[in-house]
């Protein structure tokens, strides 16, 4: 049975393309702001515009999103503690990407949203619009590291839910293990996406966009109080429509997204917010280019427009509920049902003879449905000189995943004429099937004790995970297998207020990840486990919106899968890795519309016990491929003041530097350094005449010098995105 599962996994990785194939190798298994009525006035200041929703979220914790947002800075986020603890008092490294920053950079996917945050690697697989695939502190976070409104966003195989950035209010990156609050996950950290929510002030926004590669897109975001509800109900409707080609021949990046939401707040103590979304995307089946021997990336695209339309539908419905029994006793419940399904056809080049490329094809049809619920009870009390915030919670998640797949042949490609899309490619017969389900139940408790200048955070959690799998052919699945795991994880952290706004801290945290399958003796693999030691200092300059942070970390993950040295046809859970390094970050709002972000990361990620999938030999001490050891990122905007002759004009730009890395896990070849530049120019027409208030023109350019770059990971190389320009006309009211 385990051999069948492994063969199925290999087939799926081939179909997914090199981007997901390498992930199997790297993923190592797998200040509270409150009001009687929510308030969210139109910003009208700076380049961000839109509606400030951080302080107007229906819940103040457990998925309610950051608060105290000014420009690019935020004072608090519930992601790190599930309470509204100020960021400088959290015992781990945290970054918030606010709505104004997302607007200024006009991000088009989750990877772009994370591109300027420390500790993240987002260009490992070059240009690939199919998946939100990224790393945090060297660990893959694609499957276990993406959360939405405090709930884990399950992803399996090719059924990976996509985040539409326009529908988000903010993103919070919590670096380091988060299992003590969230259960199974990546040791590198998580990204929690906060959905846009209703506000009780009428507003509206429309974007019309156009760009190269025939990109056309329209965005809309409208909402406000429900008439006749006496200020107890509000609604919001957000959506986009996009039609776009890409630089991949015959490949599109089309999307339709609509997200209605509704809030009912019958009193100052009770709120209920309904959150829904439907999204349909049409993407390329592959983003890979043919690789010649010696880590040379050709310009020969592997896909073919005749059989390359990856169509995916996703939908979600859920709610965030909060009730305050007293000012110091709060109950919250967050629930979400998610569905993802799609057809994944692809063509790949298997070899080249003369001027003809031999090709094969594949087709996968997948369906994923999941439900998640998190119940929280928060209490605050004082015992003598110690102030306590106690949080208890019980959460549950279940998913069902089904796959049908098959492989076939495709006519050869004439390299001389590149006859893409001019030959019929038959659909492969579906010959394999996989069913999988997983249940996770977690019980957690957290104590935050504040005494004088000290803040002690203690978190503990017990998880029970059960997974059922069956594989075979359509209509004839084999006998299902069941694997049960349990683990206790936790965190202990200590913060000390050294001076006003300056807080050094230290923490220790653990994590775990279940691993499906069995060893040569039929025994289930034990979960991969990890631990981190982190220490740093955070500084929020008093009287300003300037924050800075420095963190050093040491992460070790053990019991990960590696080939059995005594039987290379099997695996054993004895591998281990170590990630060490440090990060430095500065975020500043210097004036309305004038912001700055700086981020530097030094990372040393090495296999301490692992076997090469290529040579079958140990690669102990080798560095993980494709992840730069050093990276520097900076982005800034400047809005000319009203007294300037250039009033209304915003200029901005960014630089992203990635140092060298190895192209393969055997560490035989290095990737070169890459430096990319982005730019922004915008103009608010109200500076010409007040009657034009709300009208804004904006141009964003990415990789403005059209740097032709590649990145190789696990022995396969990927092409980066060429220069991209998007112009926008925006009207806000």
TrEMBL record:
<comment type="similarity">
    <text>Belongs to the TonB-dependent receptor family.</text>
</comment>
<keyword id="KW-0798">TonB box</keyword>
<keyword id="KW-0732">Signal</keyword>
<keyword id="KW-0410">Iron transport</keyword>
<feature type="domain" description="TonB-dependent receptor plug">
    <location>
        <begin position="87"/>
        <end position="190"/>
    </location>
</feature>
<dbReference type="Pfam" id="PF00593">
    <property type="entry name" value="TonB_dep_Rec_b-barrel"/>
</dbReference>
<dbReference type="Pfam" id="PF07715">
    <property type="entry name" value="Plug"/>
</dbReference>
<keyword id="KW-0406">Ion transport</keyword>
<keyword id="KW-0812">Transmembrane</keyword>
<feature type="compositionally biased region" description="Gly residues">
    <location>
        <begin position="43"/>
        <end position="53"/>
    </location>
</feature>
<feature type="domain" description="TonB-dependent receptor-like beta-barrel">
    <location>
        <begin position="264"/>
        <end position="704"/>
    </location>
</feature>
<keyword id="KW-0998">Cell outer membrane</keyword>
<dbReference type="InterPro" id="IPR010105">
    <property type="entry name" value="TonB_sidphr_rcpt"/>
</dbReference>
<keyword id="KW-0472">Membrane</keyword>
<keyword id="KW-0813">Transport</keyword>
<dbReference type="InterPro" id="IPR037066">
    <property type="entry name" value="Plug_dom_sf"/>
</dbReference>
<keyword id="KW-1134">Transmembrane beta strand</keyword>
<feature type="signal peptide">
    <location>
        <begin position="1"/>
        <end position="21"/>
    </location>
</feature>
<dbReference type="InterPro" id="IPR000531">
    <property type="entry name" value="Beta-barrel_TonB"/>
</dbReference>
<dbReference type="GO" id="GO:0038023">
    <property type="term" value="F:signaling receptor activity"/>
</dbReference>
<keyword id="KW-0408">Iron</keyword>
<dbReference type="InterPro" id="IPR039426">
    <property type="entry name" value="TonB-dep_rcpt-like"/>
</dbReference>
<keyword id="KW-0675">Receptor</keyword>
<feature type="region of interest" description="Disordered">
    <location>
        <begin position="37"/>
        <end position="64"/>
    </location>
</feature>
<dbReference type="GO" id="GO:0015344">
    <property type="term" value="F:siderophore uptake transmembrane transporter activity"/>
</dbReference>
<dbReference type="GO" id="GO:0015891">
    <property type="term" value="P:siderophore transport"/>
</dbReference>
<dbReference type="InterPro" id="IPR012910">
    <property type="entry name" value="Plug_dom"/>
</dbReference>
<dbReference type="GO" id="GO:0009279">
    <property type="term" value="C:cell outer membrane"/>
</dbReference>
<protein>
    <submittedName>
        <fullName>Ferrichrome outer membrane transporter/phage receptor</fullName>
    </submittedName>
</protein>
<dbReference type="InterPro" id="IPR036942">
    <property type="entry name" value="Beta-barrel_TonB_sf"/>
</dbReference>
């Amino acid at each position: 049975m385990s051999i069948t599962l492994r063969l199925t996994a290999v087939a799926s990785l081939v179909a997914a393309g090199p981007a997901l194939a390498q992930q199997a190798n790297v993923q190592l298994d797998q200040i509270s702001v409150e009001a009687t009525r929510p308030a969210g006035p139109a910003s009208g200041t700076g380049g961000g515009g839109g509606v400030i929703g951080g302080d107007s979220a229906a819940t103040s914790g457990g998925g309610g999103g950051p608060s105290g947002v000014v420009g690019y800075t935020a004072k608090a986020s519930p992601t790190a503690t599930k309470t509204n603890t100020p960021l400088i008092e959290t015992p781990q490294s945290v970054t918030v990407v606010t709505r104004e920053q997302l607007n200024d950079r006009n991000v088009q996917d989750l990877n772009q949203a994370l591109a300027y945050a420390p500790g993240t690697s987002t260009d490992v697989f070059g240009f690939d619009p199919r998946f939100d695939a990224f790393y945090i502190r060297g660990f893959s976070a694609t499957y276990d590291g993406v959360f939405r409104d405090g709930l884990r966003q399950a992803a399996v195989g090719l059924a990976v839910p996509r985040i539409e950035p326009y529908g988000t209010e903010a993103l919070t990156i919590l670096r380091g293990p988060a299992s003590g609050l969230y259960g199974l996950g990546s040791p590198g950290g998580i990204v929690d996406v906060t959905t846009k929510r209703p506000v009780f002030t009428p507003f509206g926004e429309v974007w019309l966009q156009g760009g190269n590669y025939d990109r056309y897109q329209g965005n809309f975001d409208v909402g406000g109080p429900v008439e006749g509800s006496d200020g107890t109900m509000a609604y919001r409707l957000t959506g986009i429509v996009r039609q776009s080609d890409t630089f991949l021949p015959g490949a599109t990046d089309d999307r339709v997204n609509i997200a209605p939401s509704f809030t009912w707040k019958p009193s100052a103590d009770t709120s209920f917010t309904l959150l829904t979304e439907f999204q349909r995307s049409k993407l390329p089946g592959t983003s890979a280019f043919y690789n010649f021997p010696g880590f040379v990336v050709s310009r020969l695209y592997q896909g073919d427009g005749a059989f390359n339309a990856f169509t995916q539908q996703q939908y979600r419905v859920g709610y965030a509920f909060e009730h305050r029994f007293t000012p110091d006793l709060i109950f919250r419940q967050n629930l979400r049902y998610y569905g993802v399904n799609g057809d994944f056809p692809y063509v790949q080049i298997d070899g080249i003879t003369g001027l003809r490329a031999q090709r094969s094809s594949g087709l996968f049809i997948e369906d994923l449905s999941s439900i998640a619920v998190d119940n929280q009870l928060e209490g605050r009390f004082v015992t003598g000189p110690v102030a306590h915030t106690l949080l208890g919670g019980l959460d549950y998640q279940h998913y069902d995943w089904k796959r049908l797949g098959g492989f076939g042949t495709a006519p050869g490609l004439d390299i001389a004429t590149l006859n893409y899309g001019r030959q019929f490619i038959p659909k492969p017969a579906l010959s394999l099937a996989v069913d999988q389900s997983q249940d996770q139940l977690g019980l957690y408790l957290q104590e935050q004790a504040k005494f004088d200048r000290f803040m002690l955070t203690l978190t503990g959690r017990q998880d029970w995970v059960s997974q059922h799998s069956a594989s075979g052919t359509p209509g004839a699945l084999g006998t299902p297998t069941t694997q049960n795991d349990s683990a206790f994880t936790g965190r202990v952290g200590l913060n000390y207020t050294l001076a006003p706004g300056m807080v050094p801290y230290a923490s220790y945290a653990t994590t775990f990840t279940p691993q499906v399958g069995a060893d040569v003796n039929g025994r289930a693999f034990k979960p991969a486990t990890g631990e981190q030691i982190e220490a740093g200092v955070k500084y929020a300059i008093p009287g300003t919106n300037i924050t800075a942070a420095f963190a050093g970390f040491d992460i070790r993950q053990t019991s990960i899968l590696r080939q059995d040295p005594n039987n290379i046809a099997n695996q054993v859970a004895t591998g281990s890795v170590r990630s060490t390094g440090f990060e430095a970050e500065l975020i500043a709002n210097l004036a309305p519309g004038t912001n700055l972000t700086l981020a530097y990361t030094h990372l040393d990620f090495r296999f301490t016990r692992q076997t090469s999938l290529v040579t079958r030999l140990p690669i102990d001490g080798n560095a993980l491929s494709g992840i730069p050891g050093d990276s520097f990122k900076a982005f800034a905007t400047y809005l000319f003041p009203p007294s300037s002759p250039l009033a209304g004009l915003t200029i901005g730009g960014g630089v992203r530097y990635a140092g060298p890395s190895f192209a393969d896990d055997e560490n035989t070849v290095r990737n070169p350094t890459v430096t990319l530049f982005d730019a922004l120019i915008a103009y608010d027409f109200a500076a010409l005449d007040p009657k034009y208030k709300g009208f804004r023109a904006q141009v964003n350019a990415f990789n403005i010098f059209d740097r032709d770059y590649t990145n190789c990971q696990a022995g396969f190389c990927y092409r980066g995105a060429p220069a991209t320009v998007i112009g926008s006309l925006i009207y806000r009211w």
